[in-house]
Specification:
single chain; 306 residues; alpha/beta; ten-stranded mixed sheet; 42% helix; 24% strand
Length: 306
């Protein structure tokens, strides 16, 4: 009774807000689309939409059907794509989701040798997800999630790749540049520059400032690491990044890493995958390569303990 075309229509009507706009994107006439959905509502015995002026609002049944469409359609699309790749003699596409902004530089060091070793596998990187990183794994938007904050769920696997220390970054002439470690209250007069991430996901806030009931003078967001560190080097603010990344940029910018608190903030990068994909050789090869790369720069946890 319920067909893929019905799910596609429900999702598109929700995206477009009207039958007319949805019909255009689905290459259907409005009358054909309207007839199809009226027939489905009759078969289901309940309404899917309520009309509010020119727009349609989903009923409770419509909301449920929309949720099903958002889960099922990406999975079917992923399955179709993978089967087509098999038919062409290809391994597939490794779709990587990033929940770690500063990890792009690290990812490049893994992707380059991976592509050389697996010429029949393509790599795609996504940063924005419809339902967050965990939801993207479950809905088959991505095949692998790079995250510093794993959330164990049935059906998912999270494997640690490397350890690192989150540090404060200041300009070489900053008033804090020579201190052995920084205290939360010392950041109250500062402009704090971060990636555009929710505060609860920023370690500088949830592990350092908020427990001490301290806030910076101003919080500014910048998307790119290069611009962020240029701002820090020019004295326009301070930031918090992995020590290994700061050390790479310190060779060309006048910046200094400083420990956050006497004991520092220790972190790990994890790779999340689906349990169902644990036999995919090209996926396992990427994880193993990432681990090998992590060994060369993942020594910061030991230095924190020492």
């Amino acid at each position: 009774m319920l067909e893929i075309s019905h799910l596609a229509i429900v999702r598109e009507v929700h995206r477009q807000g009207s039958l007319t706009a949805a019909a255009g994107t689905l290459c259907l006439t409005q009358s054909a689309l309207s007839h199809t959905m009226k027939k489905l509502e009759q078969q289901l015995g309940c309404a899917i939409w309520l009309r509010e002026g020119r727009r349609l609002r989903p009923t409770q049944a419509g909301e449920y059907l929309l949720a099903v469409a958002n889960r099922v359609l990406p999975q079917l699309a992923a399955a179709q794509e993978r089967l087509q790749q098999y038919a062409r003699g290809e391994r597939g596409t490794l779709r990587i989701g990033m929940e770690c902004h500063p990890c792009y530089q690290w990812l490049l060091k893994v992707v380059a040798p991976y592509l050389a070793s697996w010429p029949d596998v393509d790599v795609d990187v996504k940063q924005k997800f419809q339902f967050g990183g965990i939801g993207a794994l479950f809905s088959f938007e991505i095949d692998l999630l790079v995250t510093p904050d794993p959330l164990p769920k049935p059906g998912l696997r999270f494997q640690p790749v490397f350890d690192y220390e989150q540090v404060l970054v200041v300009g070489a002439t900053h008033r804090l540049a020579s201190v052995p470690y920084v205290k939360p209250e010392q950041l109250s007069p500062e402009v704090l520059i971060t990636y555009p991430v929710a505060l609860e996901r920023l370690d500088i806030y949830n592990q350092f400032l908020l427990p001490a009931n301290v806030a910076p003078k101003r919080h500014k967001t910048i998307e790119t690491t290069d611009i962020m560190l240029q701002m820090v080097a020019s004295g326009r603010g301070v930031s918090a990044l992995p020590r290994w990344l700061v050390q790479e940029y310190a060779a060309k910018l006048q910046i200094v890493p400083i420990r956050l608190g006497r004991n520092g903030i220790a972190k790990q990068i994890f790779l999340g995958t689906r349990e169902a994909d644990k036999e995919l050789d090209y996926l396992n090869a990427f994880v193993n390569l990432a681990r090998e790369n992590g060994k060369s720069q993942g020594l910061e946890r030991a230095s924190l303990r020492g």
